């Protein structure tokens, strides 16, 4: 496997571990603090150093903003695109992964238009939570407020994994948010439930004091036995897992009848080898809700699809935006 492709695969593989760690960790690893926080100053320093190393794989942002919302400050980066007059893309990462996880996606997406990338509030990153997030409406409210604080009037939101759930949740709980469309990249708890085997295998990832080798073993399982190698973004994610304590509700399954009420065009992308749901069932569910013309299945992709097939994703988003006139 070529080094660039191997790097993409291993960077994104870590997301699978983190999605499940979040689902379990929200339930099992609580302390008395009401908001997400780093557990020590040393943890802050180590994480930010790892984040800086991972950011080195991205082009220089054209703009960096720290946006005040009612739940904390949201870090947003803008990357200049080929058509600055078009409604920009907004990328939402998976849990604990932060903006650097989209390094491989930016070249092909900025060929379409401007791209904003956010660090999710209440997660490791440069976004800083300062008010409890206790409901799905809260989770929608902070993102709605962050988007309204950015310059253009409307946005095409692209969510990966839990970022996909966050995007769908925004459309459902803040229907007046400045959305032009949604693209959901193998979102968790949207097309189907997490399989029991995956939940059981993920248990070591929920406990930061367990050996890293256990988490690496689970990552390998999610990608059909592919080896896991350390790369800057993987080190950043691992550091966040061990130094940051999240305090917000775990994502709940979104029912099909609710998904059908989303009022903007939706492109649903399903990874054919995903372990976050049954891919065949997920594709059928997405087609029932969004229509077959708005569903793409990547048969050979895993839940790490953003790093595995970035150009294919960009091409499908470009065609979707052209077809929907948005």
Automatic annotation (TrEMBL):
PANTHER family: MONOACYLGLYCEROL LIPASE, MONOACYLGLYCEROL LIPASE ABHD6
GO molecular function: hydrolase activity
Keyword Cell cycle in annotation: no
Domain AB hydrolase-1 intervals: 89-315
Protein keywords: Hydrolase
Protein's name according to its UniProt entry: Alpha/beta hydrolase
Record-linked InterPro entries: AB_hydrolase_1, AB_hydrolase_fold, AB_hydrolase_sf
Keyword Phosphoprotein: no
Top-level lineage group: Bacteria
């Amino acid at each position: 496997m070529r080094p660039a492709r191997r790097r993409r695969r291993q960077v994104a593989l870590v997301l699978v571990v983190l999605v499940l760690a979040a689902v379990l960790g929200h339930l099992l690893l609580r302390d008395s603090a009401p908001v997400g926080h780093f557990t020590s100053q040393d943890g802050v320093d180590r994480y930010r150093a790892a984040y800086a190393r991972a950011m080195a794989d991205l082009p220089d942002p054209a703009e960096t903003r720290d946006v005040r919302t009612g739940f904390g400050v949201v870090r947003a980066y803008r990357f200049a695109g080929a058509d600055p007059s078009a409604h920009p893309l907004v990328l939402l990462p998976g849990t604990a992964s932060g903006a650097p996880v989209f390094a491989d996606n930016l070249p092909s997406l900025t060929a379409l238009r401007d791209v904003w990338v956010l660090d999710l509030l209440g997660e490791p990153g440069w976004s800083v939570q300062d008010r409890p997030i206790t409901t799905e409406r809260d989770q929608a409210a902070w993102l709605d407020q962050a988007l309204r604080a950015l310059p253009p009037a409307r946005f095409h939101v692209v969510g990966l994994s839990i970022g996909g759930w966050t995007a769908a949740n925004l459309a459902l709980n803040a229907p007046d948010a400045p959305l032009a469309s949604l693209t959901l990249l193998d979102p968790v708890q949207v097309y189907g439930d997490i399989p029991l085997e995956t939940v059981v295998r993920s248990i070591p990832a929920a406990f930061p004091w367990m050996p890293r080798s256990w988490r690496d073993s689970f990552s390998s399982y999610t990608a059909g036995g592919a080896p896991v190698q350390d790369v800057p973004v993987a080190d950043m994610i691992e550091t966040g897992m061990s130094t940051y304590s999240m305090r917000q509700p775990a994502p709940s399954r979104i029912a099909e009848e609710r998904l059908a009420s989303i009022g903007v065009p939706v492109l649903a992308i399903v990874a054919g080898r995903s372990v976050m749901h049954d891919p065949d069932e997920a594709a059928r569910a997405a087609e029932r809700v969004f229509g077959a013309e708005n569903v793409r299945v990547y048969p050979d992709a895993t839940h790490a699809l953003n790093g595995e097939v970035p150009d294919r994703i960009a091409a499908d988003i470009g065609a979707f935006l052209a077809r929907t006139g948005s």
